[in-house]
Structure formats: C-alpha cells, structure tokens
Automatic annotation (TrEMBL), chains A, B, C:
It comes from Branchiostoma belcheri. Residues 37-123 form the Pyrroline-5-carboxylate reductase catalytic N-terminal domain. InterPro entries: Fe3_Rdtase_TM_dom, NAD(P)-bd_dom_sf, P5C_Rdtase_cat_N, STEAP_metalloreductase. The lineage of its organism: Eukaryota, Metazoa, Chordata, Cephalochordata, Leptocardii. GO terms for cellular component: endosome membrane; plasma membrane. This is Metalloreductase STEAP3-like. Keywords: Copper, Endosome, FAD, Flavoprotein, Ion transport, Iron, Iron transport, Membrane, Metal-binding, Oxidoreductase, Transmembrane, Transmembrane helix, Transport. It catalyses: 2 Fe(2+) + NADP(+) + H(+) = 2 Fe(3+) + NADPH; 2 Cu(+) + NADP(+) + H(+) = 2 Cu(2+) + NADPH.
Amino acid sequence: MDTKVEQNGGSIPMEPKRDFKSGQDEGKTSEASKVPVAILGSGDYSRSLAGRLVRSGFAVVVGSRDPDRNRRLFPQGAEVTTRQAALSGARLVFVAVHRENYPDLQQDRDALAGKILIDVSNNTKLKKDGESNAEYLARLLPGSTVVKGFNVVSAWSLESGLFGGSKEVFISSDDAEARRTVMQLAQDMRFAAVDYGSLRAAREIEAMPLRLLPSWHLALKMVLCVLTFYVLWNVYRGVVFYAVKSGDNYAAHIPIHQVNRALGDTAITTLCLVYTPGVLASFAQLYNGTKYKRFPNWLDKWMRARKQLGLLCLFIASIHACLSVLEWSPAYGYDRLFEKTTVNANGDVVYGMMRWSGETFLLFGTLALFLMAVLGVASIPSVGSSMNWREFNFVQSKLGWTVFLFAVTHCSVYVAEMFIESYLFTSYTPPAFYIDLTLCAVLLLLKIVTLLPCVSSRVDRIRRGWERKAPKAGKTNAAYSKEDPEMTSYL
Amino acid sequence: MDTKVEQNGGSIPMEPKRDFKSGQDEGKTSEASKVPVAILGSGDYSRSLAGRLVRSGFAVVVGSRDPDRNRRLFPQGAEVTTRQAALSGARLVFVAVHRENYPDLQQDRDALAGKILIDVSNNTKLKKDGESNAEYLARLLPGSTVVKGFNVVSAWSLESGLFGGSKEVFISSDDAEARRTVMQLAQDMRFAAVDYGSLRAAREIEAMPLRLLPSWHLALKMVLCVLTFYVLWNVYRGVVFYAVKSGDNYAAHIPIHQVNRALGDTAITTLCLVYTPGVLASFAQLYNGTKYKRFPNWLDKWMRARKQLGLLCLFIASIHACLSVLEWSPAYGYDRLFEKTTVNANGDVVYGMMRWSGETFLLFGTLALFLMAVLGVASIPSVGSSMNWREFNFVQSKLGWTVFLFAVTHCSVYVAEMFIESYLFTSYTPPAFYIDLTLCAVLLLLKIVTLLPCVSSRVDRIRRGWERKAPKAGKTNAAYSKEDPEMTSYL
Amino acid sequence: MDTKVEQNGGSIPMEPKRDFKSGQDEGKTSEASKVPVAILGSGDYSRSLAGRLVRSGFAVVVGSRDPDRNRRLFPQGAEVTTRQAALSGARLVFVAVHRENYPDLQQDRDALAGKILIDVSNNTKLKKDGESNAEYLARLLPGSTVVKGFNVVSAWSLESGLFGGSKEVFISSDDAEARRTVMQLAQDMRFAAVDYGSLRAAREIEAMPLRLLPSWHLALKMVLCVLTFYVLWNVYRGVVFYAVKSGDNYAAHIPIHQVNRALGDTAITTLCLVYTPGVLASFAQLYNGTKYKRFPNWLDKWMRARKQLGLLCLFIASIHACLSVLEWSPAYGYDRLFEKTTVNANGDVVYGMMRWSGETFLLFGTLALFLMAVLGVASIPSVGSSMNWREFNFVQSKLGWTVFLFAVTHCSVYVAEMFIESYLFTSYTPPAFYIDLTLCAVLLLLKIVTLLPCVSSRVDRIRRGWERKAPKAGKTNAAYSKEDPEMTSYL
C-alpha cells in the first residue's frame, strides 16, 4: 500500500479519493490523492482510526512521540513518524490525545496553524458547565480551525464493518467550510455525517457518549411504578390479608402466582399507557383548534415514550405468558375454567378438559401476545425502515388496537367468570383486574368518541393544517410534526 | 433513459457526479458552498425537509407567503423569506405545496425558469389513469426542469436518524443531468438514490407510498384460505358431526382444541407451500431445457411469495406451539401418548409420564419450531445482509429442509399413534392430518427426484446457463435471475 | 450556522459540499456524465450489474458476442453492442466472464489497454495455492489495470434494495488511483467500499464468498461437545445404569426428559463459557502488567467466539424452556417441588400447588431466559448500531451478568431440593448439575476477585494504557483493541 508522503504544503487539495481527473490533470490528481490525513497520538483510538482510514483508501500518517516504539502497533499502510513530520504534509489532523495533554500541542502551534484539527475526545463524566474539550482546544490554538466529531464512534465501531447501517457522526465547527470538509471525510470513512452547526454544539456532542438509554428512562419509570403497585396490591390481597386474618401462610405462592397476576395487570395497564397519550393529543388538538399549539410538556414526553412502553409491554406480557403456562392447572384458582378431574372405577384418573371460558380466555391471550410480537419485530430498525409510512401506520395503529381489543377480551372473560365469586371484596379491596379493566374501559370510550364521524372529521382537518383561528404569536411550535397522535409508534 | 454513448476517448472524466477541485479553485468553492437550496411551502413536510437539509450541511432558504408568521416554525439555520427572494439565489427548488396549488406557481414562472424543481408531492388515492403530479407541474412550467423524488420519505423519516440503513429515494426526470444532480443531493442528505429514468416513471413513484404491503397479499390470501379450510374441516369432524349424530355439544372446545388442530395443519401445509414452487421450478427448467424461458406467471408470483409464506408459517407454528402447551394433557385426546395416572393406596394421585411416542412427538415439534425461528431471525434485513450468498443459501435451503423433515416427523409420530383408531373415518371424512401428510409425501417424493444424480446434474447444468437448444426469440426473459428455485428464501 | 444567502444568480454552483462545476464547465460535465461504464459478458451477473448501474444513474454499455440475441435479456437503459464498440467509449470495464474464458480477452488487448478492468469473478472451490483470478487476468493483460472487487455481491444483492444497510465491497489493485476510482464507483452504486490494498489481496477477497459462517465454527464445536457430553452423562445415569442394574427400561424418556436435562446443563455451561474468557483475560493482563502483550492464541479465539456462544446459549435455553414446560408435572421427578395431588370424598381430584421451591425455581429460570432474549435482540446489527458504547456495554456486561446470576439461582434452588436425596450417587457418578454448578462457582469466584478494589483499580489502569514496565520489542501487538475483556459482547 502506498503510504509515501508528498510534502507539498497547504495549497494541495485535501481530498484523497475524489478530485477526479480529467485527463490532463491526471498527474496532479495522483499527487493530490497522496496527501495524507494526519493523526496525533498513538493510543488504541488512534490505531483504530488509522485502520479505518487506510481501509477507506486514505493515506495516513501518524505523529507519535516515540515512532520507533509505536510503529509496530499500527496497521500496515499507516506511516508512523514524528509529530513534526506528520504535520508537514497534512491538512486534516485528527487530535487523538487526552484533554489533559492539549497544552503540549502548543509546542507545535506553527505546524498546526491553518490546518483543520478534528477533536475526537470524550469525557468520562458529564460536565455540567464550562467549555467543551473542542472549545478548549480552539482557545489554545487560535491559528487552527477546530472541528468536533467522531467522538460518538468507539474504537470497536471503527474496526468493525457496517452491518446494520452506518453509524451517525456529529460534526460541529465555527468554520462552515471546515465542517463540510470533515463531513465529507466522515462519509468517505462510511459514516453518516450530521451537521451540528457552530463549535458551541460540541458541548452537546461530547455529552452523547455518556448517555445511558435516555429514551427509556420515562417508560421504565412508569412501568416499574405500575409493576410495584400491582405486586404490592396482589401480595396484600393474596398473602398478607390471609396471614393476618386466618394465619394461613400463602407466601410460597408469591414467586409465580402473585407475581404472575401482577405481570398480567402490568401488561394490560402498560398497553393503556401506550394508547392513552395519542387519544389525549386528539382532544388537545380539538380543544386548541389547531395542531400548531405545543402540547403540555408531560404529554409531549409521554408521546415520545410510546415505543418504549410498547416494547416493555411485550417483554412483560411474554413473561406473563410463560409463567401462566407453568401454573396453568385447576390448582391455581383456575378451577372455574376447567371441568372436574375425577377417578373412574378402575382407579384411573380421568382428566377434565377446559370449559369454553378457559379456552376463549387462552385463545385471546395467545393471539394478543403473538400479534404484539409482530409489532415488536416491526420495531427493529431495519424492518421498520423497509416499510412505507402507510404500512408502518397500518401495523402500529390498526394492528396495535387489535392487540388492545384482544387483550381486553382475554382479561374480560377471566373477570366475567370470577365476578360472581363472593370472596372478591373479602379483603376490603377490589381485585387488581378491576383497576385494569376500568382503565381499559375509559380509554376505549375516549377512543370511540374520537372515532365519531363529527369528531374525527374535525380532527382530520386539524391534522391537515386547518386552524379554528390564527395562532397567537409565541405559542406555536414546530415540534409537533415528529409525533403523530394516531401512531402508537413502537419504532 | 439516456444511454447514448459519447465516444470521447480517455481524456474525459469518467465520473458523472463528482468533479472535485484542484487547489487553485479553493476560494471559489467556499463561495459555491453557500448557494442555498430553496423550499417553496411552509407546511410540516417543508419544515422537516429544511431540518434535514440543515443537518446535512446545506444552506436552506424557504419561500413562504407569510415569512414573518412562519419563521418561528422552521428550524434554526433555515432562512425564511418571500418566494421571490428565496428563488433568486437557488438553483434547486423543492416544491412542497399541494397539487391543487400548482397553478399559483405560474406567477413565479420567470423566477423558476431554468431551475430544477423537485416535486415531492403525494396523492391520497391511487390515480388509475392520467398524468402524475410531476408531469402536471412540468406541463405548467415548461421553462423549468421537473424532477420527481423524495415523496416516499415521510416527514418523520426526514427528522429521524438512519438506524437500520438509509431509506431509498426514487428519482425520475426527463433531464438526465438534473436527475443526477438530485440523486447526488439525496445522497448528501443520507438517502440512497435510485434512478427511475424519465418523468413518466413519476406515476409509478407516486403510487409507492400508497402501497400496503403488496408483497404480503398473495401469501396472506393463501394462508387464510388454508386456515379457513382446516378450521371448517376440524370443526365439522369434531363438533358438527357429533352434534348431529349424537347430540353431544363439543362447541366449548373450538377455541383451543379445534383451532389448534387447524393451526398445526395450516403450519405444515404452509411449509409445503414454501418448498413446492422451488421444486416445480426445477421441473419446469428440466422440461424447458433452459433457464431463460419465463416461468408461468402463477409460478413466478408463488416463488416471490416464499419468504412471506415462511414467516407466516413461523407465526402460525408459534401460536400452535403455545396453544398445544396449554392443552397438553391426556384430557385432550392425547391419552395414547401418556401412561395412565392412577391413585395409590394413600389416596394420592400418581401421575403418568409420557410414552416414547409422546416424547418423540414433542421433541421434533419443538426442534422444528426453534430452527424455524433461526430462519426467521436470518430474514431480518440487517442479519441477512451480513451473510454471504453461500451462508444465506445454507441457512435458507439446508436448514429449511431440516425444519421440514422435523415437522413431518412430528406429524407422523402423532398419526402413527392414532392411525389404528377405529373412529378415524367415523364422520365419512379422513382427519385433516391425512391431507397434510399426503401433501408432504408428494413434495418429498418430487424433491427426492430432483436430487437423483442424473436429474440434479442436468438441473445444475441448466442453472449454469446450459441450454438444450437455442431459445426461440420472444420467449426469453431476464426476470429469472431474481428468483432462485433452490432458495426457499425467507429474505 | 451559516445561512446567509449569496445572491449570485444562476451561474453559481448549487452544491454546497462537493465543489460542483461552476457555470462555464457545465458543458463539459454533461458530456462527461455520458461516458459509459462497460460490461463484458452477458450472463446473469452481467445483467444484474447492468441493472444496478442503470438505477444508480450510470450510462451502461454491454459488450456481447451476440448482441442481437442478448439485447432483450438486459434491462432498459443498458446498451448492448459488440465488445469492440463497448470498449471504445469506456474507461471502466467490468469483466463478467468466467476465468476459463480470460484468454479470449487477449484478442481485445489493444482496446483494453489503458483501461481499468474490474474482475468480479468467483471460484467454486477454495484454491489452496496459486494466483487469484484477478492476478491471472493482470498477467494476461499487462497493458490494463486490474482491480478486484464486487465478487462478494451476489446477483440477487445487485437487484434488490438496501434494506438492512449497504453491503460491503472489498477492492484491491496494485494501482492506488484505480483502486480509488473503483471504490468511488462502488459507493455510487450504493455499496460500502473497503480498501484491501494491492492485488495480492485478491486471493483473500476471492476466498470470502466461499466462507461458511467461519465466526460460528468454534462456538458450534464447543457447544456440540458440551451437549454431547451431557446427553451421554444423563442417558448413562438415567437409562443405561438402571437397564444394567435392575433391567428397568427408561429409554422412552430420553427424547424429552434426558435431552431436556442435558439442554439445561448445556445452557448454563455455555453461559460460563461466555463469561470465562473475559475473566481470564483480566488475569492475563494483571500477570503481564500491560494490555499490549498478545493473549495466548486460544484465549484470543475464545474471546472472539463470545457473541456466538451467547446466541447459542439463548437458542438452547429456549428449547430447554419449551421442553421443561411440556414435562412440567410431578410425574417427571419434580414431585419434591409440588404439593401432593389427592382425591377428595366425592372422588374428585384436588390438584396440589407448587411449593415455594418450585415457584422460585421457575421464576428465576423464566427471568434469566427473557433477559437473555433482550441481550439477543441487542445483538441484531441494526439494534446494536443504534446504541452508543456505554449503552452497549451496559446491556452486554451488566445485563449479561444478571442473567448469569439468575440462571445460577434457578439451578441452585433445584439442586438444593435434590441434594439430600440418597440416590444421587447411586450410579457411582454425580448428577450432571454438580458439574455445572462447580463451573459456575469457580467462575463467580474469579469474577469476584477481579472486582476487589485493589485488583480492579490495577486492571482499570492497565486498560487505560498503564504498563508495569516497557514492553519488550517483538512481543507487542495491536490486535487487542478489537476485543474488550469486560465486554461479553453478543454483538
């Protein structure tokens, strides 16, 4: 591989691959294509970066304090030399050193002047205030153009292929031209470059790798609260109450029986939580008479958590199904759903089949679970991205409400069978499924209202941009288009 | 499509789209980079488009009728001004207005002349005949160059990242140069541009967002027919017959017992439907003596539905497995698969284990299901695209036929155990599994024939391009290469 | 962000990033864009290639020996002509003919001189020695520049869209400029081009399509060995021993009961195999005092198999769960986990519930399985690529060890209940779960050692690059950064 560095100074175009030749330029172009990209630093990240650049067809020169020792650590095709030599030929310089070593770079101030420095650094902790690493670097080296980028890409991503789509790389710089140059570089390295504007945005970009699944926080909190509530409720009614009242110890049945009841209650309640914000948003739009008014903040956040709520619902419903199968026997209070098992004259046991209620109960639960699994599969990014908007909407909205109706049927059959039992209120509290079904009933009622012709036609008009009156200045926003109330969006 | 070849020898640059600067142009380049892309219209789509362009590093200027009111709706970085001002500096103009407002654009005819207009419009209904929106726009503004594109991308996709791979964007225009310019623009916006040729193709492109899972229609119809047939057959034999004959009411066992039997029958029949067209195609090729003759239309469509049939088979087999577990007891007619449960001297029940037939029956069913799940996972686009052709073929063909053999074994063990029972033909009809297994046997026999050395060597030669005789003109086609009869392709 | 609009009229290039042609070049550019790409050969691959090029906006000209006959086989937009005519206008030539026909190309030696030939050929068998097809072609046509590439892309991939991300295409050539030109071409065809350096690498590139899931070989071998061992062990203890000792025949219970035991043992042992190499690597780094020393070869390979081991563990644990549910009854030796089922005065059977041990046993097993399924979903490429490094690490490491602890609890509860039974050592061998749990205990102990503050702080320092002493030359390597011992990486 050709790694010889032509040292032609700053006037040489920095793009190694492009520059396409017309015939007469060919000599010049080949020269240009050898203009290397420099990397300062010889750590792991530097090495992975060098490898990716080489595989993307760039000439790479690494500036190291101890080139002889470090040479063997770098992939074939990358030249390892002194900092001074590395900088002389390059126009684009990756700064792959720790922030605490930035001041040392001032020694090379002159060699770095006029060049584009790409700050790839990350922090180990979120800095609440103060400047980003990139801004600090720009302050130290005012003669260079600093661009923030690539920090969201790990050494591992640099070394691996791109199955599952290109990683996004966020670029910011105060120099628009430098930003575009580095965006082009990122694309040539098979990343998807996103323009984040001025260097101040580096604060936001540096915070990204420190995030821990932020889109899941709200949904997880909601589901954990619901689950805790139902576990406590069911344990009180099924264990604590009897322990206090009659001294019976049913604690042995917490792990499966009470937990499983709570999981079922949580699953259907979470399903309500998925579909409620969309219905509320419709009412908000009807009330506002426009879609350009911002939703209350809580509603906005709730709508953005619907995908995660849906996936958590699938997770919980799956565990519920598994535990239900394991306790599926007349022993566990399901005797009303089974015919009696008896002993015949020969002393053989003759098993009872399920009643119609047991079979219907199971069928709808099973169908709801497997249709929800289809929704889950459609939420896998590469599956969802192969659908058009109409298809995605069909799957998430039509199929989603079908799942809801099946789940409500599953729950209702069970309740209908248990309704008449006298012990329902024995613990001075209703069973948890009363709470679930009340939530479901309210949601269904509200949904039916939005489907009434007179209401739905007005909602449709509003969503197409119609407004009852001109919005007052300062209250409108553009945030809405991201979230469609009709969508129950698992994606 | 422009395919005329200019024969200018080697001195002409071969790259149609790029054309990079050499050093001395650099000043000019920075200027060029500020030339903005214009957007006409200020609806949701316009705003999402502006955001994506800004994030992709473009200067954006939005032409609005009421710029002061709309400015705040647009993302930072996009300039909102009057139509006239927006058009003056741009060469590329997104037309993000409704078709019914196209005539209004004629007011700006002069400002739009010589520019490339990108028609992003969609229709709410499929237009059977008549011109596309893009052709209509081209007719209204003959001085401009109209390019169709981006309509398949929703506002949501514009605003979101690209997890799961870039969305494809289909571009058509009568001007090849304009088409290439817009394709480049699409790629710079991180979409994958596909050239659809002349503007007439806009009719096809405008129909795309109105599609509702067309690749699933045939498979869904086939599976629904099969399922309905088996449900009716099983309900007749298990419920209707006894109701009429002896007045016994077994309707309570429809939801699980009869539906589950029908699901099992449907799953194995669907598996046959997955593998049958590939075998038929081999025979068609043997008969034709060439692979260049078009298959009958029905076979072609069937082959293209194999992936969907396979996924529906997995869906149905999963539900069948879940319901089977729930009814897995001697009560449900499986007493031949269990040893007797008895009562011992203490009055305790001593449960019977399964016989060898019960255990074998379950083992093969379980293995078939989980291997089929592996096939399903390999059908996820980002998983499938990480495999080479040989690996994909191995998974879909070798593993697929293993699933089929395991499923047939599962079914056969059950049948073998039930075969001798006298009540099999009591309803003057055979049980449904006779039908399944007959289909399986026929398919296996045909498959074995294609595997005979004399047959398979000829099929291989044909697939490598050998022909018994030169094809007659007008009967050949190139459609075949897309569908490989050997592949049972879930992808 | 720079949004100022320069109003310079129509002659200014509109593309911000690419430096497109300014006005006066326009004529030249349009001309250039018509310079076609040539394809030699008219087989299936040639046709798919032509289609992809046309859809990517290229002018395509196909050189065929019999253009009149083959024209109709090619997609609209591709010109089919004689070889001589096709070559005259092109500079880039795809050579889509079989290796055995390469010598025929020497007839067109002059027309091919100075052009870039892209060798897309594949072999049907792995060639142990000798030159690659591309080197052979370069030897036959010394006047042309040969580039290897595209052979990893099937005709099917060429014809289909890019759901699931672009396919990678590996490019090698001795001419760096030609390599870059073809890489650009590949990217314009919506593939991701990877630079593989000189033409000698074509040997490696040509071997790629012949690979059959090489990353799975080691993991599959390990798991199959473990599974075979446990099946034999369980069949000996549960069937062979009793057959020999007392003549009892328990063979009927091999398919579910003994296989399922073996699957459970295999699942937990495989989980140990996933987490062991990471712990061993930590100790190796502690011992070496640096992270720059290469791990022993076996450890390196083992670490690279962790993802596959994890997915196989999920597969086996799922089957184990399904079979367990099917045999979940006191009949199958689980009577210690159930209360007694009795017969009441009416002759009705009163089912016993599970004891606390049975419920706990099932709960932890179920939770371990479904959390492992979450890890499996995070291993889907398009899901994993949407996470940052911290998130990925959290899911694979934190969640992974949680799964391990739950699985160990599941196993321990069962063992605790069975521990006291006198028949444990009746066959002169311990039950298999003794082996599992011993492995788990050793692994847990080692893991706990690495978590001790004094040890973990030193490991952290080593991983950040600290070294106890300068490494000796010749013993260091860069391979390490790819595999992080902390990661149990299912991805």
